[in-house]
Amino acid sequence: MPDWNSPEQVALSLDVLVKLTHGFIGVYLWEFAQSFDFDWSFISGKRKFKWVMIFYFLVRYTALAAFISALVVFDVKTRINCTAVLATFQFTGSAVGGFATINFALRTIALWRRNWIVSSVLTVLILGHWSLILHGILIEGVFVPGTGCGITKINNTILTANLIYSMCLDFVVLALTSWKTLRLRNKSRKSLGGLIIQDGLIFFASSVCANVIATVFMILNLSPLMSVIFNIPAAVICAIAATRAVRKLTRWTSEGPHIFYTHADLPSSHEGPTRQTKEQVLELPTHHRSRTEGVHVQMETFVAVDEPYDATSPDDGKGAIRFVPDEESQDSDIKHARAV
């Protein structure tokens, strides 16, 4: 086994760290640019902004700030305030993982229909994670002429604890999501659970794997450089995974709205409202149907909420769901629905 603290290995480790950092930051900037149209749809008002999107934007732009700070640390050779730059990089880099976990946790809470036990456990774990993130910004640096910023003081114990905690928290979120989606998968292939099984769990798993690799190298502590060599790649993977999961879910719900209902009272076609003991999904078509297609209503598993379709009948007040088609096609669709 090589001596990781020898001058040759330190020089090699630094070269690998710089190239790996620039490569992964380039990947993130490409991802950021090619998906900016999604951000712009909220900024321009084309999409309705909801509070859960706050954490999506926090992940995106905190990661951007972190990686710009990293480029300053590695590439700027003129005298700067290294302590301020390093503190910014340390906080924003750790915050990326924190905000990404919140994004994943919100989806998990939604999947569990806001179960108070799941919500409470995840909230407490997230607060604990952020306490470690805030304690980890205590870092000092000094400018070295011809080299750039160098770290003079850092709390490795807090950083290691932060990575381990983040890895365990991501694993808990992944386990809860997998458990629930595997149960929903047997009920409906077109439910939110089915979507997460096919696409979403990949994002959860990739985030967990990235944190595991970074944590292993931090625990091994081969050298100061080798301990942090995978921190930026892990942050890039977490940021991309969390934001892609949000974009995938948002685009999916806008194409096929699904409504959250917990033991809802749904009207049957002949007997009026009856109490349902299982989760169900009302999948409503949002595009215009041709005259030959009619109106198709499919009952499956309730897994998501889409606000424009959360309508309650004022007559019975028991959670009856009504769907009003567009004005142009309303009359013709109703006529053909009767034929179907």
Automatic annotation (TrEMBL):
The keyword Transmembrane helix applies. It comes from the Eukaryota. Coiled coil: none annotated. Keywords: Membrane, Transmembrane, Transmembrane helix. This is Transmembrane protein. The chain crosses the membrane at residues 12-30, 51-74, 86-106, 118-138, 158-179, 200-220, 226-246. Residues 308-340 are annotated as: Disordered.
